[in-house]
Amino acid sequence: MAEKSFTPAEASAIVKLPLKAVHKIIEGRIIRPRRSRHGNQVQRLLSPEQLVYLRLEAEGLRLLPMASRREVARAVESSPQADIVAVSGGSALIVQVKAARKEVERELKRLEKAENMALSDPEIMNGTPVYHGTRIPVELVAEMLSQGATVEEILSGYPALNREQVELANLYVAAFPRRGRPVRRPWADQKPVRVVRSPRTVTA
Fold it and tell me: Cys staple from 107: which of 14, 76, 96, 192, with CB 3.0 to 4.6 Å?
């Protein structure tokens, strides 16, 4: 079975590195993703090992000279099970890889859950990704989190959701940005369901 690969946006969300930084690392040829053609577009796809390298960049590896960074990237890709890699460039350097790999593995599991919790159907909210079994846009929940709403506040307004679904909203939106013209937000003028403070009564 072919190894799963990831877009730069997915990589950025997984390793907690700005998308601009991911593109800069690719353009600097520190890592070299494979290219895949979809219609008229060429997409760059990264391997799990390249995600591990990017996680090391997020942890501070970007402070090293470019030559050393390229050497680490090659070592990580060629030894996918290694806990440490050695870099010779100028002076001996040992890079711990195990923790970065475990972090990437953990985030990959979260990404899979985030992807599976959402549905995009042209018949529902004009194709806006919503939580399965609801008409609640994932992007709406991510917006609420970015504006300072707590998970508890969102759950009280949208009791159809659970804590994990709310916590995964930002990851989903970062990993799977919508393409094309500015995104329509058909929910923008709708008020969320709210929980009345008297015992467990939900009103619209």
Answer: 14
CATH number of this structure's domain 120-203, picked from the four choices 2.60.120.820, 1.10.10.10, 3.30.470.10, 3.40.140.10? 1.10.10.10
- Residue ranges matching CATH 1.10.10.10 in the chain: 120-203
Q: Please tell me the distance from the alpha carbon of residue 109 to that of residue 172, in angstroms, as a whole number.
A: 12
pLDDT of 81 reads 87
Q: What one-character-per-residue DSSP string does 53-91 give?
A: HHHHHHTTGGGS-HHHHHHHHHHHHH-TT-SEEEE-SSS
DSSP label at residue 41: E
pLDDT given at position 148: 94
Half-sphere exposure for 63 (CA within 13 Å, toward CB): 4
Pinpoint the alpha helices (H) of 118-199.
138-146, 151-157, 163-167, 169-175
pLDDT the model gives residue 191: 54
Which segments in the chain show pLDDT lower than 50?
1, 181-182, 187, 193-204
